[in-house]
Amino acid sequence: MLPRRHRLVDSSGFKEAVRRGKRAGSKSLVVHLIVPDTGIDAVEEREPQVGFVVSKAVGPAVVRNRVKRRLRHQARESLSGLPGSAVLVVRALPPAAGASYDDLGTDLRRCLARVLS
User: Fold this and answer.
1) pLDDT, tens digit, for every residue of 29-48?
2) What is the pTM of this model?
3) Are 54 and 48 in contact (CB under 8 A)?
4) How does pLDDT run across 64-79, given as a tens digit for each residue?
5) What is the Rg, in whole angstroms, of the alpha carbon atoms belonging to the chain?
6) Torsion, Cα of 49, 88, 77, 91 (10° steps)
7) Which pLDDT value is given to residue 3?
8) How does DSSP assign 20-78, residue by residue?
9) Please, are residues 87 and 16 in contact by the beta-carbon 8 Å criterion?
10) 83's torsion region: left (phi>0), alpha (psi -120 to 50) or beta?
């Protein structure tokens, strides 16, 4: 399970990451990463946050929830590689419904490597 302090729950964080963040995609998902300013003008230093978007296009509720659970677990393992106050949004695409746990993890790691470089 992803700890509460690492969960992105406000819509403004989602919008900001999707609109202004770096993006990388694969066959089953798209990731958006934004790292807010950490200079002198930064208001506060916080921990990385991760949010998930799994639409009805992925499948029925059972499938969407399974995809979210798998992505949450994979993202938890990748938290240590994210910069300090990064906001990461992971959007599942319809092929994610048929992807295995390992395939989702591989896609997530590959996309993260691209947006972090």
Assistant:
1) 999 999 887 555 455 667 89
2) 0.88
3) no
4) 999 999 999 999 998 8
5) 14
6) 130
7) 85
8) HSEEEE-SSEEEEEE----STT-------EEEEEE-GGG-SHHHHHHHHHHHHHHHHHH
9) yes
10) beta
Task: Let me know if domain 4-116 sits in CATH 1.20.1250.20.
Answer: no
Mean per-residue pLDDT over the chain, rounded: 90
Domain spans of the chain? 4-116
Helix axes 61-78, 101-116, angle to 10 degrees: 50
From residue 12, alpha-carbon distances to 24, 63, 81 in Å are: 20, 27, 23
Cα 85 → chain centroid: 14
Length of the chain: 117
Name the residue among 8, 20, 29 with its Cα closest to residue 111.
29
- Cβ atoms of 70 and 101 closer than 8 Å: yes
